[in-house]
């Protein structure tokens, strides 16, 4: 779909996956004026397809677009485009239990600019790919390292929106962590280097004495849709959930730590290393709280239980 700066997005069309043409002076290439989203489609046992809260992705993209001086498709346009793309790629959706179809909506300033300014024209597109587990460990525990030198977000910056530049900012620290055998990086706030924020592509939770805590959303953390869903699921199971500042020291005392995101779903954290000190959680992966939440969330997403939350959108 195409759009000028103040206009409406045109009717979209399906086209075969392949390279796209782009002006070398497009704002997205020169100034990073781009946003993306990520969501998944699961195939149910009865053959129907489920999307998980796609309107939440549409709303997040619209909020991000406001921050990035971009027009964005309406919630309805976004959801309809996702549905049409998924239906056209039905054959790529893995069978139940074998993975999902990852859906990547992309909004870019594709009009030309030379001096720094928002683009005159925009493109919204969606591509898809079948996926399995995000971490090579699968749903086994992941090992994180706390990053002390690099930050992914600063107050007043763009950390709270899903803009492409945020991910360029994490590549170096993530590559260094992987080279040392860690699964990913856990970032600290950049003012005090005391509060945990999030992992390169997922949110983080700790469990202590059955109370679940996660860093509050304050502009430097992506408001994850899985995070929001897990908070609601946990509260519906009677857990106390706190959104607050979580200090790096609390990781030592935590009973369980887990990460959430569309790609990682809910991954238990097996260990966290901070300033050469390693804290481990359990031996065989999931603690009881994260296991319960994982089962509830994935049952909803995969259509294995009744959708009492009305979160899924069924396509056939
Ligand atoms: N934080 C970051 C930086 C992410 O890229 C993601 C993935 N979108 C998340 C958190 C989790 O968000 P969601 O649950 O909406 O996928």
TrEMBL record:
Cofactor dependency: pyridoxal 5'-phosphate
Annotated GO MF terms: branched-chain-amino-acid transaminase activity
Residue numbers of N6-(pyridoxal phosphate)lysine PTMs: 162
Sequence intervals crossing the membrane: none
Any one GO CC term of the record: cytoplasm
Keyword Metal-binding found: no
UniProt keyword Amino-acid biosynthesis, yes or no: yes
Enzyme nomenclature, EC number: 2.6.1.42
GO biological process, one term: branched-chain amino acid biosynthetic process
Family: Belongs to the class-IV pyridoxal-phosphate-dependent aminotransferase family.
Protein name as annotated: Branched-chain-amino-acid aminotransferase
